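Model it.
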Amino acid sequence: MIPLRDANPSHRTPWVTLAVIVVNALVFFYEVSLSEPSLERLVFTLGMVPARVTVFPTSPEIGFGDAFFPLFSSMFLHGGWLHLIGNMWFLWIFGDNIEDRLGHARFLLFYLLCGVTAGGAHTLFNLNSTIPTIGASGAVAGVLGAYFVTFPRARVLTLIPVFFLNLVELPAYLILLYWFVIQLFSGTASIVTGSAARGGVAWWAHVGGFVIGLVLVKLFAPRRRVYLDEL
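Modeled.
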């Protein structure tokens, strides 16, 4: 299922969502301008490498920044056009309403915390991996989790490519629950088969981001005022 747009208008311009998309695009344009050796160094330096976190307490050669700064920096790097477009497309569809609900500053903090936590979840399930992990999908997964609990019945125009292209409107909770189950199943399968050690999709970053999004949106959402008439 590929969501195309939601029927859930926001009431203010999603400046943070737009800024995050622009920053990710600019960073990617910088990536493609680099030579292959330079790009590899950039990805290994700023990408999230779980093994660096694992050995940090006992290795004097790895500083705190080397181990943990990539939890932040990795969410602005992407491995290809489809990787970038897919993440930014989901952010554009679902991010504006969460930003509208939380407010600009809260949404930015929410987005970054989801990304960092997603990186932590990936590290937890891949402690000895030396493969750099990059991409905004963990942070975007947090936005999807927030949307799941905040606007579960919002209608989303969805493309379903089964035999031929079908356009249907589905409730958001159905699309996002389907997406989450795929991530959870794939993450479990990667552990069983050992495919995570060979690189690929960071399924547990998606799972971790989604779950923390479910929790944080409740903490970050401003309380709605209730006005009562006095008798």
